[in-house]
Write a structure and sequence with these properties.
two-stranded antiparallel sheet; 13 helices; alpha/beta; 327 residues; AKR; Aryl-alcohol dehydrogenase-like predicted oxidoreductase; AKR2_Oxidoreductase; 10 strands; NADP_OxRdtase_dom; 36% helix; TIM Barrel
């Protein structure tokens, strides 16, 4: 495992880390013993950073992380997120009283005294423009409840706006072979400002594993069923904003990348790791086997300049126009 510095903070985190949405809920049936085994497998392989949120299983993923990291609080870094347990359009959700309550509830579930990274969870642009929430986070940081803070964003515009705040230390963005737009302006600007990049939805909700077909049926409690067209939240969070059927067609055009890299998923993760501005990539998981499969990306060859150019052309000519939702 290699470790990368999170922006200009003192945190050095595993370049391949994990997100815990799937073990909390909204990805079909969960299995707590298997989830704990998977977390242990990740840590045994050098993973020292996990991303979670208060709404993942109504706090369940935080509780699982508390069990898995007991006694390792100083060496395993946890990032959580807030605001989506409330009305994300209302300023009241971002008030000092509300944010403190969200933070303290997360700390209680995680059984920790301080969060390493606390992120606003995909707030509307208007909230970021109003900006008072950043002072609230400054105050929590001064009190020692959070070590650093950042923002999980849906669009490049939101990310660029966040970079105007000198205390934002990390941006979490949707970034994968189907969502390359952040490379154009956001990533260079973040690097200039010393802000870390956390790449989420790296496998496009599983499309980039290559394991799905048109006949595949997702469980009713899986967001890949109930949010296919953005019915519950931003459509970009599900299949990177692509229609499922179109995504399957595009995957066929990418199968060549697995030739030297074992699997499509390990190749897709390797491509993200090859982007120097990315601090860490956070695929999801439900089993220890999935953790091990994702870790394979660390050992496969990097992409050549020619391959990178080919993949950029693929995005601009075949993918970009089919992405739905603001990004």
């Amino acid at each position: 495992m290699k470790y990368r510095q999170l922006g200009n903070t003192e945190l050095k985190i595993s370049e391949l880390s994990f997100g815990t949405w799937a073990i909390g809920g909204s990805w079909g049936q969960t299995d707590d013993p298997e989830s704990l085994k998977a977390l242990e497998t990740a840590m045994d392989n050098g993973v020292n950073f996990f991303d979670t949120a208060d709404v993942y299983g109504d706090g369940h993923s935080e509780e699982l992380l508390a069990k898995a990291t007991k006694g390792k609080e100083d060496s395993i870094h946890i990032a959580s997120k807030f605001c989506r347990a409330g009305d994300i359009e209302s300023l009241d959700t971002y008030s000092a009283q509300s944010v403190r309550e969200y933070c303290e509830n997360s700390l209680r579930r995680l059984k920790r005294e301080r969060l390493d990274l606390y992120q606003i969870h995909c707030p509307p642009l208007e909230i970021l423009q109003e900006g008072s929430v950043f002072q609230v986070l400054d105050d929590l940081q001064a009190e020692g409840k959070i070590r650093h803070y950042g923002v999980s964003v849906e669009t490049v515009e939101e990310g660029l706006l966040c970079l105007d705040n000198p205390n934002v230390k990390a941006l979490q963005v949707i970034f994968n072979l189907f969502r390359q737009k952040p490379l154009e302006t956001l990533f260079p600007k973040a690097a200039e400002k010393g802000v870390g990049i956390i790449a989420r939805v790296p496998l496009a909700s599983g499309l980039l594993t290559g394991k799905f077909s048109n006949e595949y049926t997702f469980a009713s409690d899986d967001h890949r069923h109930f949010n296919r067209d953005g019915e519950s939240f931003n459509v970009g969070e599900t299949f990177a904003g692509l229609k499922f059927e179109k995504g399957l067609d595009l995957v066929q055009q990418l199968l060549w990348i697995r030739k030297e890299r074992k699997t499509l998923s390990s190749a897709a993760l390797r491509w993200i790791l090859d982007q120097e501005e990315v601090t860490t990539v956070i695929p999801g998981f439900k089993t220890a086997a999935q953790v091990q499969a994702n870790l394979e990306a660390l050992d496969v060859p990097s992409f050549t300049d020619e391959e990178l150019e080919k993949l950029h052309t693929f995005y601009t000519s075949e993918v970009h126009e089919h992405i739905r939702g603001a990004y």
